[in-house]
Amino acid sequence: MGCWTGGARHASGPFGGTTCTHLARLLRGKLVQVYTNAVNIAVELFSYPKTGVFLLPGKLNLFSYEVVGEEAVRYARGLPPLDILFVGASAVTPKGFFLRDAPEAEVARALMERAKRMYVLADRGKWGKLPAPGEFLAPLERVSGWIREDYGDGDVGRDQG
Fold first, then answer.
1. Cβ neighbours of residue 22 under 8 Å, at least 6 residues apart?
2. Closest CA to 2 of 23, 21, 31, 32
3. For residue 96, what are the contacts with CB-CB under 8 A and spacing of at least 6?
4. What number is the average pLDDT over the span 85-102?
5. Of 14, 104, 144, 157, which alpha carbon lies 20 to 30 A from 4's?
6. DSSP labels for 19-47?
7. In the predicted model, is pLDDT for residue 9 greater than 90?
């Protein structure tokens, strides 16, 4: 299986969840700069010379592998323009996409400001799930597309724009 990066030189994310970890493994050895706030993603990619990895500074979130806080947000806002942002979602509803908590969402919003395109990664169990408690991230219209596992229904990675 290959990984399409759309010719991206600067990609951000993926965030720290299991679906994003699968994406990170597809990025191994690709000629791309990855900016991430997820320690586990940095570890997945660090030993591949063509794949540049930059870990945002900050405080490790109590509930995930992700670095959060004011320092991470400030750093994210100072990044070069990002070609693609990959964000993992905790829930997807008709309203939009949700993350687990406010600290994760603050970093994601800062990265969204820098990104030309945003793709949301969510396994099928997240679709239609009510966020509890969840932090709203973005409406469906803000997202370029989504990535989820393929069950042969042709609905994987469909671009909305």
1. none
2. 23
3. 136, 137, 138, 139, 140, 142
4. 90
5. 104
6. HHHHHHHHHTT-SEEEEESBHHHHHHHTT
7. no
Q: Does position 75 have pLDDT exceeding 90, yes or no?
A: yes
b/e map of 90-122 (b: 16 or more CB within 10 Å)? Answer: bbbbeebbbbbbebbbbbbbbbbebbebbbbbb
| Cα separation, 72 vs 111, whole angstroms | 10
**Strand order across the 96-99 sheet:** 91-93, 96-99, 135-138
Q: The pTM is what?
A: 0.83
What confidence score (pLDDT) does residue 150 get?
62
* Residue type for position 135: E
99: nearest Cα among 86, 90, 111, 109 = 90
Phi and psi for 154 in degrees, rounded to 5? 75, 15
Give the largest Cα separation in the chain, rounded: 42
